[in-house]
Design a protein that fits this description.
6-stranded antiparallel beta sheet; 14 helices; alpha+beta; 24% strand; 7-stranded antiparallel beta sheet
Length: 501
């Protein structure tokens, strides 16, 4: 352990932390005011020299004020270790003192974005348990200081206890190490359809923002003229529409490649004393320790192409505490082979014995409900098609649409099932991708039986299981089976003495 680094007295972050705080403050401001910046650039030719000087003086003064504030935030952010507590003081005008007991600390994780890497510091995130405490983030520490702080907190939590120390700072051979070739396989087998939808949603959102700019400051008629011309050109040729779709698909595939490489570059996944250590990232590097108890459930996801390549990915759903966003708690391990999946499941679950237990499928009402919703979707899409193309080739459009939606329905119904053993629930699902969710029953926090008016007539219900990391839904099962499952899960929750977090 790094005994030479002392946290008994109040410590500050590295002075380089001022740059981190300053950069994040500027990014938030630019993100909120980019429209004003765009207007200034487009209208700069119409502003007098004196007016430009005033604007430049205001901008420079503003930058200086933000820098002063960043320095004051750095000066007033102090922390130390006092016995079994992590003590934090922060705030400029409104001072805040925080004392967190070590037994409330879940994990101490490291991360490095591009600025951190350039100035050679690490961000240290201390994850806490409980709804009234938010995560503590130390923006800039040296690697030696970060490791020393993590060791002191971790070792202090386990002194005199029987529980194994879940964090080992010495280097060990990882269970899974992803190189460039493996990342290429992962990229090729990604869900590019999802990326395409996200790209289209982004383009619509960007168009809305540009429209607001034209509406408030420029000529909205000018934008409408260009948009109508473009729509007429595209709607006049089905081939052009097809080419546009091909281009968007290629862009979506390239986007998937970039996203995978940036997020999962140099992925190393290790199992140390019943805890998982994950290191990954290119521009934003992260090193996360994930304890077995904190994993609420896992999802194993694959698709036809991934299966041919012999890989899948695992999503770990952690317990969410404080005001932490759900997206920050999602840990994804890509490129897993069958042996990796077995090792992960053996580490997480004491037993996975499902011998003699058959898959249970949903009631036929589930299929009926999907078909009704699909008919509504087809109706809406037809209305949109008619508005753009005036019913040209609408028959062929419907043939394609009906075949596509029918294949999705078939795949979803075929893949949906659940299995319940003494301690574990498995739920299968998906349409394009195939997902398998594993949940230990004692980690369920709330069980709800939901029944609509139409379900009541057919004597079916949905079972919704609430965990500390989200919901798991078992749709449209018979009322008799729903009652049995509801009572059994409640019994397992109430009689279990295991830690759920």
């Amino acid at each position: 352990m790094s005994n030479e680094i002392n946290f008994v007295e109040f410590n500050r972050q590295s002075l380089k932390g001022v740059l981190i705080i300053y950069g994040k403050s500027l990014f938030r401001i630019v993100k909120a005011t980019w429209v004003l910046l765009f207007i200034f650039i487009t209208k700069s030719s119409k502003i007098t020299s004196l007016g430009k000087n005033y604007i430049y003086a205001i901008i420079i003064s503003f930058f200086i004020l933000i820098l002063i504030r960043s320095y004051l935030v750095y000066r007033n952010f102090k922390f130390k270790i006092d016995g079994d507590y992590f003590i934090l003081k922060k705030g400029i005008f409104s001072k805040k003192n925080v004392a967190v007991a070590f037994d409330r600390i879940q994990n101490v994780n490291f991360s490095q974005n591009l600025i951190h890497q350039l100035i050679n510091v690490y961000q240290v995130d201390i994850e806490t348990a409980g709804t009234n405490l938010t995560e503590i983030s130390i923006k800039a520490l040296s690697l030696a200081e970060a490791k020393a702080l993590r060791e002191k907190i971790t070792l202090a939590k386990h002194v005199g206890g029987t529980e194994d120390i879940p964090i080992a700072l010495k280097e060990e051979k990882p269970l899974l190490s992803i190189g460039i070739k493996s990342l290429l396989k992962v990229s090729i087998s990604e869900n590019h359809f999802q990326s395409l939808l996200l790209l289209i949603a982004f383009l619509f959102g960007f168009y809305q923002q540009v429209q607001d700019v034209f509406k408030n400051f420029l000529s909205e008629e000018l934008l409408d003229t260009y948009v109508n011309k473009g729509k007429d050109i595209i709607s006049g040729s089905f081939l052009l529409l097809f080419l546009l779709l091909i281009i968007l698909t290629i862009v979506a595939i390239i986007t998937s490649f970039i996203r995978v490489f940036l997020r999962h570059f140099d992925l190393k996944f290790s199992i140390k004393n019943s805890a998982f250590e994950i290191k990954q990232g290119l521009i934003n590097k992260k090193a996360v320790i994930l304890k077995r108890e904190k994993v609420q459930f896992i999802k194993i996801v694959t698709n036809p192409l991934k299966r041919k390549l012999g890989i899948s990915y695992v999503v770990f759903k952690q317990a969410i505490s404080g005001k932490t966003k759900k997206v920050d708690k999602l840990i994804k391990i890509v490129g897993c082979k069958e042996e990796h999946l077995h090792k992960i499941k053996d580490t997480l679950f004491s037993t996975l014995d499902f011998s003699g237990i058959t898959k249970e499928k949903p009631h036929w009402y589930f299929v009926y409900r999907i078909i009704v919703r699909s008919i509504l979707t087809i109706t809406i899409l037809n209305a949109c098609y008619y508005w753009i193309f005036n019913a040209d080739k609408q028959v062929w459009f419907n043939v394609f649409l009906i075949l596509l939606i029918a294949s999705f329905i078939y795949a979803r119904v075929k893949k949906l099932y659940f299995k319940v053993s003494n301690d574990i629930l498995i739920v299968g699902g998906g349409s394009i991708e195939t997902t398998t969710t594993y949940l230990e029953l004692f980690k369920v926090q709330n069980v709800k039986m939901k029944q609509t008016f139409f379900q009541k007539r057919r004597k079916v219900a949905d079972i919704i299981l609430q965990t500390a990391s989200g919901k798991i839904n078992i749709p449209s099962i018979t009322m008799e089976r729903a009652n049995e499952l509801y009572d059994y899960i409640l019994y397992k929750v109430e009689t279990s003495t295991k830690k759920w977090m």
